[in-house]
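Design a sequence for this backbone.
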């Protein structure tokens, strides 16, 4: 089996956009912006080449030298699962806000906190969930953890 590679700079760029835009949506009380971020995360999880934040990284930030690649041995599936979970939380939160329920900011806030933990501390809650489900033998979670040395 060939070693799989993931560019963690691309993942960190996704997290930075997610955190920044969701925090802005909360501060200016703009649920539509939160909904936009939720849709971007869902698209990124299901169709990674179409992910807007990843495209900005690949076509703008990296070519301009603003962000350097950080490619390491890793599985992309746990990161996509994390985006799917985050996108689901944000989209549900935006739908609750659209229905007039201010509690919709709670799932958005959870995503801000968890994305911040990943960006600043390097711990991915969604990845951890993915690997737990893998160890439990849940179908669809077939990739086991790759030991990464930096």
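Sequence:
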């Amino acid at each position: 089996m060939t070693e799989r590679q993931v560019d963690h700079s691309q993942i960190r760029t996704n997290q930075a956009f997610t955190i920044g835009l969701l925090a802005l949506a909360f501060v200016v009380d703009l649920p539509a912006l939160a909904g936009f971020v939720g849709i971007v995360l869902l698209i990124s999880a299901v169709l990674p080449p179409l992910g807007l934040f990843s495209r900005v990284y690949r076509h703008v930030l990296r070519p301009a030298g603003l962000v350097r690649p950080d490619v390491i041995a890793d599985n992309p599936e746990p990161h996509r699962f994390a985006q799917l979970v985050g996108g689901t939380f944000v989209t549900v939160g935006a739908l609750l806000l659209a229905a007039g329920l201010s509690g919709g900011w709670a799932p958005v806030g959870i995503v801000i906190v968890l994305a911040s933990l990943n960006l600043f501390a390097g711990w991915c809650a969604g990845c951890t969930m993915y690997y737990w489900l893998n160890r439990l033998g849940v179908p669809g979670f077939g990739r086991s953890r790759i030991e990464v040395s930096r």
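The radius of gyration is 16 Å.
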